[in-house]
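Hello again,

I reread your note about wanting to compare the complex against the isolated chains. To keep things tidy I'm splitting this into two emails, and this first one only covers the full assembly. Below are the input lines as submitted, including protein chains and any nucleic acid or small-molecule components. They are followed by the predicted structure of everything together. The single-chain runs will come separately.
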Amino acid sequence: MDKHIVVIGGGTAGMEAAGQLALAGFAVSLIEKEKDTGGHLNDWYKLFPDRRNSSEVKDYLDKKVSSKSIRILTETYIEKLNSNKDGFLLFTQDGTELKADAIVVATGFDLFKSSRKEEYGYGIYNNVITSKDLEKMFRKGKITMTDGNEPKTVGFVHCVGSRDEKVGNFYCSKLCCVTAVKQAIEVREHLPESKVFCFYMDMRMGGAYYEELYREAQEVWRVNFIRGKVSEASESINDKLVVKVEDTLAGRPLKIELDMIVLMAGMEMSEGGKKIAEQAGLQTGENRFFSPADHHYANNISDKKGIFYAGTCTAPMNITETISHARSAVSEVINYFNDKA
Amino acid sequence: MKIEGKKAIWSEYQKEIADDHYFYVRSCIRQNFFPGSEVAFLKIMREELNKDIYEHPCHTTCSGIGYHGDVVPVETAMTVVARQFAMMTEAGYRNYIPSCITSFGLYTEILETWHHFPEVEKRIREQLWKATKREFVVPENLAHASDVIYKFRKEIVAKGKYKLVNKNTGEPLKVVDHIGCHYAKMFPSKGIGGAEYPYVLAGMVEEWGGKVIDYPERRHCCGFGFRQYLIQANRGFSIACSKEKFESMQPFKPDMIITNCPGCPMFLDRWQYVINEMEGKRYGQDGEGIPVFTYEEVAGLILGYNPWDLGLQMHQTDCEPVLDKIGIEYDPEEKHNTSIYNKKVEVHSSVNV
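Full-complex prediction:
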């Protein structure tokens, strides 16, 4: 097949889609704004629920995009996107022209900027970190506070930027709960003497083996799960973090001193995705992610002919779902050309 | 603590504050609590900063205290506020500065409501016309009086005689800044520095030589909380709130507290006396209480005003420890000379009620 497909975004969805498109006989250009492909996989150490190393998935995807039919353009982003009767003409920031017969948008998600939840003090109080910051520590093999000591008490704050009207995000990011459970276990593994608390609204364990992991966290690792939303964090005279939360099961307010707080940042439509939406005139939903033609049976199809969606640019999803979604996007691309023929 | 993080937030929450020609509205309760503060504000504006500031003798309560106490319906509050705006309009002013934080919160809430629901504004205009035959334009600029002092904080210290510095050690005084809840908690974008890390008082303290303390219960209510105090049965909760704050700030050894709300200095000041009477406990250094000031009082002290002209003798927690630390001259014998209250109050005539 002599068709050329441009895949925008070189994370999990983009790499999987590019690989599958190459297998189907298409010529592919994979556009990635960062130095390396892999997206958020590069920031995560181990994956839930089986806690395998993220590099194993990255290795799989690297092999997938090693096809000669795939041209990878890193540190590249789309400056302009035009459509015409033959397809699309894309211009990168350095003026390179890319002619495409179809486009797969795989611009993924950005982590919610935790500093927007000002009351939690990210960027203001020492030892308030995000889930991503903690993964970096896991990768280094050392969990330390700013003074170099290991924390004795760690609190995980769920739903930071998710299900939160105040920041304009009504939706659930779906994966922060299980990430918190995984990370809570890992903190206990690294620091067996530590006490770990998870402050949650309700636990959304909607994936294979998530519930089992949640149970393991409680029974084996003695992680304390407290149902209540953290209202604010502050710093005590001893440089400890003071967290206020309502324990809704005990029916009383709780004030607790912790050494470290981990904010479980939610997922938002990526900035790159927003630009593509604007350039191509693509429809976005109330949640600001791309809005597919139909959420039930046309989840990869956009409102513009020849443009398809893959992965978390349409909604929060885990890696398994992202890979499946990317594959189904390729099916839709194949159908598109078959219908045209 | 990373001060860069706070500075980043402060830079995001700035607002426009008019430069001159203000229509000033007093608080219902401040003149009873701390009678020197509003007088000092007017003196600073007129005599130190040479600003045109006008107050109308027929200005009434904004009814915010009743609105937040659940006894005044919002449309009634809006109509009362519309009347205040009408007086501003008739006087030829467009820059509205309330002395009270709850008034500021209420005015902000009403203007936002009218912005989003113009049909409500139309209805209120009709009600005001029926009741008083008055009309109004909405203020071009709404700022709290503490915003205005914040705006001119550099000019004040440039003219000042004292700084918030311990004269014996040369160290900055440690200051707790307490912001009234209705300043920015409802509309963070309307407060300097936002709601979580307000800068309006911190900016004054820093400029005037002091150092602000960030303590765990910084955001907590002073204890007034309207229904916490106004309903007698809840008063235990009121003092418990204040006590929680004192317990939290005490380890940081604050020299003083600065406030920008009518109720906050009242409760933080008076409840210290009550707690001492009940439990024999004081929260300041050397067995003293922690002196509590309004921002106008602090500005007046910086400018070298006589503490008793500022009304500091009305405080139940003695202010002398702070005066002594700064090195402010005062006559202890004059503390309870009430001649200040006999001064002639200038009242504007030609009133249309």
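For quick reference: Strands of chain B lie at 22-25, 53-54, 95-98, 141-142, 174-178, 211-212, 256-259, 292-294.

B.
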